[in-house]
């Protein structure tokens, strides 16, 4: 029965939003609730666990935080439409810090009680997802005026034993939906909890420095040491390939940061890439220009000023 309920949901062909799979993803942490942040909101009751929705809301906020602030992914296919969880995050952005995903300990603290309460009361959880998810995956009961859920221990144990598989399946559902709303690349990778940043190996980067004649790609001054600068921002492209890496001095690297350079640099890197002998399959000038335009519209902001010296 447990397996069939999860399979019934995971085989669902269409979603109205990412709320349902994201809610289910939050529940996967119940397997280790006694060792995890927010464990105070989970109580044992016979063969069940009674879960205060603060436990879910804290994780809900953490999962949506990078999607909004770091990767700038739209959550609705209709342009300019914003989902409620994004509106909540926007209202509380000064408290939560937009630069880095808050730790579980932080979102479970008393300082975050107001934002958790709003999240629970919103369409994101209480008004729609909490009752509607049961139609697709009947694994809990709603109790205490929709402030808590009750879930059997054997279901929690199943989620714990199969956490990696279930998380991957739920991330896949979320990624498929988001791909219908965004043209940004590598969305599935962006849903992972831990994503190590990769760099070109020394020999490959050395070839780029040679092509640039030991000069910074942006200011054109000579230096002995260079940073590997992603021309299209890392948080957008989420891959490290030679066609998108420039050798930049410390000053230009810090100044550009996560912004998209103006078009004169686009023409410069396209010409430079023509001299690279080991470009990955699938690369073309047209491909790179399309990525640039997509980044400008979906990530950088079409009305935002492009970076320049």
Walkthrough of the structure:
The protein has 309 residues and is an alpha+beta fold. The chain folds into two domains: 2-190, no CATH class; 202-301, no CATH class. The protein has helices at residues 2-10, 19-27, 54-70, 84-91, 93-96, 104-107, 113-121, 123-127, 129-136, 153-161, 163-179, 187-190, 202-211, 234-237, 250-256, 263-273, 285-301; strands at 42-45, 48-52, 141-143, 148-152, 227-230, 245-248. Helix 2 (19-27) packs antiparallel against helix 11. The termini are far apart. The mean pLDDT is 94.
Please give the structural blueprint:
Blueprint: H1 2-10, H2 19-27, E1 42-45, E2 48-52, H3 54-70, H4 84-91, H5 93-96, H6 104-107, H7 113-121, H8 123-127, H9 129-136, E3 141-143, E4 148-152, H10 153-161, H11 163-179, H12 187-190, H13 202-211, E5 227-230, H14 234-237, E6 245-248, H15 250-256, H16 263-273, H17 285-301
Antiparallel strand pairs: 1-2, 2-4, 3-4, 5-6
Helix pairs in contact: 2-3, 2-11, 3-7
Shape, per Cα inertia axes: elongated
Termini gap: 61 Å
Q: What is the overall number of helices? A: 17
Low-confidence stretches: none
Average predicted local confidence, pLDDT:
94
Number of DSSP E strands: 6
Structural class: alpha+beta
Main sheet record:
4 strands, antiparallel
Instruction: Give the spatial strand order of the biggest sheet.
Output: 1-2-4-3
Helix content estimate: 40-55%
One letter per element, helices H and strands E, the order comes to HHEEHHHHHHHEEHHHHEHEHHH
| Radius of gyration computed on alpha carbons | 23 Å
- The number of distinct structural domains comes to 2
Strand composition percent? 5-15%
């Amino acid at each position: 029965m447990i397996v069939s309920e999860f399979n019934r949901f995971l085989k669902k062909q269409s979603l109205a939003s990412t709320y349902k799979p994201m809610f289910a993803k939050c529940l996967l942490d119940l397997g280790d609730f006694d060792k995890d942040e927010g464990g105070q909101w989970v109580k044992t009751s016979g063969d069940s666990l009674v879960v205060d929705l603060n436990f879910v809301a804290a994780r809900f906020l953490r999962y949506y935080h990078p999607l909004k602030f770091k990767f700038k992914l739209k959550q609705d296919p209709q342009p300019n439409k914003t989902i409620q969880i994004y509106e909540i995050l926007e209202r509380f952005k000064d408290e939560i810090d937009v630069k880095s995903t808050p730790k579980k300990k932080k979102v479970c603290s008393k300082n975050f009680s107001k934002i958790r309460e709003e999240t629970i009361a919103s369409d994101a959880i209480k008004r729609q997802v909490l009752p509607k998810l049961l139609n697709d995956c009947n694994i809990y009961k709603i109790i205490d005026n929709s402030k808590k859920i009750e879930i059997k221990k054997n279901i929690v144990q199943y989620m714990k034993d199969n956490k990696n598989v279930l998380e991957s399946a739920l991330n896949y559902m979320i990624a498929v939906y988001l791909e219908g709303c965004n043209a940004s690349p590598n969305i599935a990778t962006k849903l992972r909890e831990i994503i190590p940043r990769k760099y070109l190996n020394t020999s490959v980067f050395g070839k780029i420095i040679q092509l640039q004649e030991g000069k910074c790609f942006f200011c054109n001054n000579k230096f002995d040491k260079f940073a590997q600068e992603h021309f299209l921002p890392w948080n957008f492209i989420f891959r490290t390939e030679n066609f998108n890496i420039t050798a930049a001095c410390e000053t230009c690297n810090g100044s550009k940061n996560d912004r998209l350079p103006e078009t004169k640099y686009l023409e410069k890197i396209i010409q430079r890439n023509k001299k690279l002998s080991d470009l990955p399959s699938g690369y073309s000038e047209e491909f790179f220009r399309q990525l640039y335009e997509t980044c400008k519209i979906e990530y950088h902001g079409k009305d935002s000023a492009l970076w320049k010296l």
